[in-house]
Amino acid sequence: MTIQFQSMAQFLAMGKYGAYVWPSFGLTLLVIVLNIVWARRLLRQAQLDARRRLVIQEQNA
Amino acid sequence: MTWTWFHRLGSPPYVYRLAQRLTPWFAWSAGVLILAGLFGGLVLAPPDYQQGNGFRIIYVHAPTAWLSLMVYTWMGVAAAVGLIWRIKVAHAVAAACAPIGASFTAAALATGSLFGKPMWGTWWVWTPRLTSELLLLFLYLGYMGLRASFDDTQRADRASAVLAVVGIVNVPIVHYSVVWWNDLHQASSLTLAGKDTIATSMLVPLLVSLLGFTLYFGAIVLVRLRAEILRRERAASWIREALA
Amino acid sequence: MTPPDSLPTTPPLLAARLVIERDLLLAFRRPEQLLHPLAFFMLVTTLFVLSESSERTVLRGIAPGVLWVGALLAALLALDFLFRDDAQDGTLEQYALSGQSLTWLLLGKTSSHWLLTGVPLSVMAPLMAYTLGVPASASVGIMLTVALGSLALSFIGSIGAALTLGARRGGVLLAILILPLAAPILIFGSRATELAIRGEAYVAPMELLGAIVVLSFTLAPLAAAAAVRISLE
């Protein structure tokens, strides 16, 4: 397997398709990252809420 | 004996701990594979005879499209399991799947559009493949909307499960649309046998990407599943230990 | 004490027929409710004419789409009252508790709903088509295609109506839920109507539409029954 591009400029241009290739990859990476962030935030929030409820429970007990 | 694993999967604490343990494995392997696949597709794969370097979009378009269908299948199966056997964890899985599936369906449509413009000359065309994929997005959004409209979790679970199961008919429609009708979208480029198979140097990064994205979905759904379980198991005794 | 097993049970087909008769009777006592979808259909068609142009050739071109969008929206409006009254006065609950197959009872309810909304729509459709510049010779074809399509719509819509029974802002949600499921009906139905308007044979899309009808006729009441039970909990 060899690298198919001779220069960075060639790589970025993607032979006249650059304007389509890079937004596609960028968008997909964005969706990937957003899903990670969103999921982790959800879990963190759920854990916080559960901890708070436990504290309240212990106080009431 | 052989059914104990099934019963254990119905236990929220068991699933929570299992998800916790499995997530790093899924996450790291997904990261490596996705990076390798995308690198291979962008840099190592030779340009296509007809589509030049533009074909490289397939390395994100195919995985996102694959995910959009696979996630719905998991969602539908989980919903059916939840409905039939009344297993709460199954409903939690379905709920966890939906936002992931919706976002990747949107990504599939967008990357497909970006693929279509240079190749077909248009951003959108109402062919069976594209139309049914768009409908898939609406199904996801409808599922999420239906869930949100109920205050009672159990009602939300079961009503949205019915919708998920009814909508599963769309998955084979999307998949086979290019076979049943003359579609502008090309038929499957992945044939395991036959003469028109894709070149190996192009195929390998694609397969690596697909596997990577699949494992990525596993990681994300496991994280969301844990959040769902915590939300539902309000005052359960095992939570204290699990959060420590 | 006679054991309950010896009580005679109504066969499901008869039960369905009784439901149809009851619904039809109730509907004819308040005929205004039936007029709403029809009026809406007329309104939508008129709006399209006003927003496009009044040239006959243009209108004839968009006629299939206009007719079907109008019919779909009118059907959505009508689906609202498929279960509403019965859910409110407890009849739906009685159906669910009756020991009768809820699937068959809902088959009856949805059939009567189609008789009350779909059939009038399909009779109105050729009239609306005429105002859109469609020749009168296409009337039969239009009636048949809209009748068949609205039948499928009623059944698939019943699932959505049952699911959104207990939900907030059910009407809008119903529309969002129905759209992906109703899309094939819209596609094949308008294709069939288009062929009918052009005077060509419309058998092929009608067969597909018929297949969808058969599928929804048999499976939708099952899903709707499950959804009703969930909503009534």
Overview of the structural elements:
- The complex is a heterotrimer of chains A (61), B (244) and C (233).
- By secondary structure, chain A is mainly α.
- Chain A has a domain at 34-61.
- Chain A contains two helices and no strands.
- Chain A is rod-shaped and about 70 Å long.
- Chain B contains nine helices and no strands.
- Chain B has helices spanning 4-8, 12-44, 58-85, 88-120, 128-148, 153-167, 170-180, 200-232, 238-243.
- In chain B, helix 4 (88-120) packs antiparallel against helix 8 (200-232).
- Chain B is globular.
- In chain B, 49% of the residues are buried.
- Chain C has eight helices and no strands.
- The two termini of chain C are 32 Å apart.
- The relative contact order of chain C is 0.14.
- The model of chain C has no long low-confidence stretch (mean pLDDT 86).
Question: SSE layout and pairings?
Answer:
The complex is a heterotrimer of chains A (61), B (244) and C (233).
Chain A: H1 8-13, H2 18-60
Chain B: H1 4-8, H2 12-44, H3 58-85, H4 88-120, H5 128-148, H6 153-167, H7 170-180, H8 200-232, H9 238-243
Chain C: H1 12-29, H2 32-51, H3 56-88, H4 91-97, H5 102-131, H6 139-163, H7 170-197, H8 203-232
Helix pairs in contact in C: 1-5, 2-3, 2-5, 3-5, 3-6, 3-7, 5-6, 5-8, 6-7, 6-8, 7-8
